[in-house]
Amino acid sequence: MRARRLFLALWPDEKLRSRLKDRLETGLRIRDGRPEPVANLHVTLVFIGDVEAGCSAAIERAVAGVPGPAFTLSLERVGYWPRPRILWLGPREAPPALCALVGTLRAAVVAGGGPVETRPYLPHMTLARKVLQPPREDHIEPLTWEVTAYSLLESVPDASRRTYLEVGSWPLRQVTG
What we know:
alpha+beta; Cyclic Phosphodiesterase, Chain: A; 5-stranded antiparallel β-sheet; 4-stranded antiparallel β-sheet; 3 helices; about 25% helix; about 40% strand
């Protein structure tokens, strides 16, 4: 059986994808590079990488139902990494609930036999690859996302790029005021 390339992510629903598409078309025109398909947009929580079938099942069991509160994520900061030439969108500041969820999920991945992630976490959504020029603006009008679940995704090679398939999704608990 082949290895699966897995990652945990915040996976937008169709309504949010539509809002993202509109916001990107009106608030941030990508001048060059290769834009990510709207269907692939997500915020990675933990990149797991290539894992064998037995290990992927153990990781899925370990990350299923990890507790955490729902939270609001405001996507407004436009960033550019020159070395990989990636244009991205993220929050100005990561919500504490997001950082706590990432920490808990990283520990669950390791408990399930997955790799240890040591890089600092920077929440972002990749908008385009192979971008030659950074954007003129470093922000767009904030796009508010009520995050109520997280997903385990598989990255599957396609003819010209990768497609992301949802393997599982788990709700975050609603916090009542």
